[in-house]
Write a structure and sequence with these properties.
Layout lengths: L4 H22 L13 E5 L4 H12 L3 E6 L2 H15 L4 E5 L5 H14 L5 E4 L17 H16 L1 H6 L3 E6 L23 H22 L5 E7 L17 H5 L2 H7 L3 H4 L1 H8 L6 E2 L1 E4 L2 E3 L8 H15 L16 E2 L20
Amino acid sequence: MSRYILPASVFGTVFGCAVLLKNHLTGGTCPSKAKIPGKTVVITGANAGIGKETARELARRGGRIIMGCRDMEKCETAAREIRGSTLNPHVYARHIDLASIKSIRSFAEKINQEEERVDILINNAAVMRCPPGKTEDGFDMQFGVNYLGHFLLTNLLLDKLKDSAPSRVINLSSLAHIIGEIDFDDLNWDRKKFNTKKAYCQSKLAIILFTRELARRLEGTGVTVYALHPGVVATELGRHTGMHQSQFSSTVLSPIFYLLIKSPELGAQPSVYLAVAEELASVSGRYYDVMKEKEPAPQALDQEVAVRLWDISASLVGLETTVSVPSPSPETVTQVLPEQTRTHPSEPAAAMTTV
């Protein structure tokens, strides 16, 4: 029996070190233990992957969870599973197709009518590196789903978010934004040759520009906004990348993948952190790489581009907007005053929506 002790000890040590190293490399778990009883959370793309695990964790912390999904069968199944595993009965499945303006408006209308408050909006749903395709309204699929759909949804829920302040908006972006470019001459790839990688990167850059401009417009309202790169996560999102479709990647690179690629449970931790961490309540418009604040790529800091993108986006999705004048300061990150120091919420710097 004793001859098995040493090998077992070595295996246990190696395995333990691997787990610790993986946690270190992937960011680990959310350090905040904050609970959110009485708070309503809206999460898009919540039937699988990061969204589902974010919904589960926030349900575990006592939130009222609205899971917005395109596939209602999968969404209902996921909601039942989360209710069972967390013993939180307030987890609900709702239909939203981010490739359809009509569907987004219908979803937002129901939320505004049926929910007393929206404390946390997590714009999580995405498509990645998919083949050429258009949304129901003629937008490039990645630009439309990843960015424009969430731009519209957020604007439609803004009054509810402001009424529920202090509240938060979390926009999932990607490290891929660093090679993104906003092509105002052909945002939807109608004329140039389609490049699925560039289309994805453009959509993720647009999300950060949107986050910063939204934070500027919401200064003083008590609604804070964050952009997030959650890390590399093993979900269905990467099914078009071909990463695991070769024998080499699935065997030789497996140990590296294990250390660097997160499970959905770990992948959800940054979203949970931005949703609940008390120390983030006074800042807005910032970009987080996993759970560390970082400065995004230079093109994500261009406020003139952010303002232009906002106004074009509003026009594309049928929202009225005014021409926005950038604030005198080149810095778009805002500092939100604590709730007790404000006598009343101020209006955004420009008109947000007239639906």
